[in-house]
């Protein structure tokens, strides 16, 4: 399937590792020029050097209110256009709701929600000019709450709502806005969770992986590349009729409508 992404320009936040890293690799392989955004400059440099495309590395902290506008401005200055914004940055803290302080909740919203919102707002005129699109990487917790994921679930639900709201605006402005809800994906965060589970239950990592997958009622955990392929599809002309789509890529973990 030809995605017709060659020569287009995209921004990928949270690109230094995990899902964002895989997204950058996939979009680069499709011929896109990329602005790679994360706090880890060294990791971004290594990624940029490995990609077969022109890259702009931006080692910044999207929690700072003024940073999203500088990211967009630098991208336009370098490439002259913007066709795709992938909001992938942000992680939230798990734990007992009664023990989590306000600061943890504020930190969860600061990057994943407000960082994404500000990037969308600043990028919007440029995406309108190119008929571009936004893909928000959110998470299954926004649709299926759990007691240990009160911060992440709340942040994700807000970002899903924002996706739908911006998609409504995008109908008149010619900007497509969609979201992907990854399930449990084999990233560094999941590996740490597996190690902790193994230690708590006195089992090896293989058994812990099997047990955690069984608890979630999935056959296996996903790979970052599987999320990246979904991003490439949503960014392409093949998904031109997708507007406000919430795509669950979770191995069947989400069982609600």
Which CATH class of the largest domain is shown?
Alpha Beta
* CATH fold descriptor of the largest domain: Rossmann fold
Number of helices: 8
Principal-axis shape: globular
Radius of gyration: 18 Å
* Mean pLDDT over all positions: 96
Topology, number of strands: 7
Q: Please name the CATH architecture of the largest domain.
A: 3-Layer(aba) Sandwich
Strand content: 5-15%
CATH homology superfamily of the largest domain: NAD(P)-binding Rossmann-like Domain
Give the strand order, joined by hyphens, for the main sheet.
3-2-1-4-5-6-7
Could you explain how this protein is built, in words?
With 257 residues, the protein is an alpha/beta fold. It has two domains: 9-183 and 222-248, Rossmann fold, CATH 3.40.50.720; 186-221, no CATH class. Helices cover 49% and strands 14% of the residues. The protein has eight helices and seven strands. The chain has helices at residues 18-29, 41-50, 67-79, 102-130, 150-173, 188-201, 205-215, 224-235; strands at residues 9-13, 33-38, 55-59, 84-87, 133-137, 176-182, 246-249. It is globular, with a radius of gyration of 18 Å. The relative contact order is 0.15. The mean pLDDT is 96.
């Amino acid at each position: 399937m030809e995605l017709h992404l060659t020569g287009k320009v995209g921004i990928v936040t949270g690109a230094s590792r995990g899902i964002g890293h895989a997204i950058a690799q996939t979009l680069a392989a499709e011929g896109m020029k990329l602005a790679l955004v994360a706090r880890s400059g060294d990791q971004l440099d290594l990624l940029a050097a490995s990609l077969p495309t022109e890259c702009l590395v931006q080692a910044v902290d999207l929690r700072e209110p003024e940073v999203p506008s500088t990211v967009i401005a630098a991208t336009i200055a370098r490439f002259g256009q913007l066709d795709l914004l992938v909001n992938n940055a942000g992680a939230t803290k798990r734990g007992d709701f009664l023990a989590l302080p306000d600061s943890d909740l504020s930190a969860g919203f600061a990057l994943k929600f407000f960082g994404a919102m500000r990037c969308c707002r600043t990028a919007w005129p440029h995406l309108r000019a190119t008929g571009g699109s936004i893909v928000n990487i959110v998470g299954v917790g926004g649709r299926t709450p759990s007691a240990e994921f009160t911060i992440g679930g709340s942040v994700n639900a807000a970002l899903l709502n924002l996706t739908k709201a911006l998609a409504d605006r995008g109908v008149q402005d010619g900007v497509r806005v969609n979201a992907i809800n990854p399930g449990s994906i084999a990233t560094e965060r999941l590996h740490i969770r597996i190690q902790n589970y193994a230690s708590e239950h006195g089992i090896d990592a293989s058994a812990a992986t099997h047990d955690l997958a069984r608890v979630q009622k999935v056959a296996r955990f996903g790979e970052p590349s599987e999320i990246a392929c979904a991003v490439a599809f949503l960014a392409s002309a093949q998904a031109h009729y997708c507007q406000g789509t919430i795509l669950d890529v979770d191995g069947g973990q989400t069982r609600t409508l």
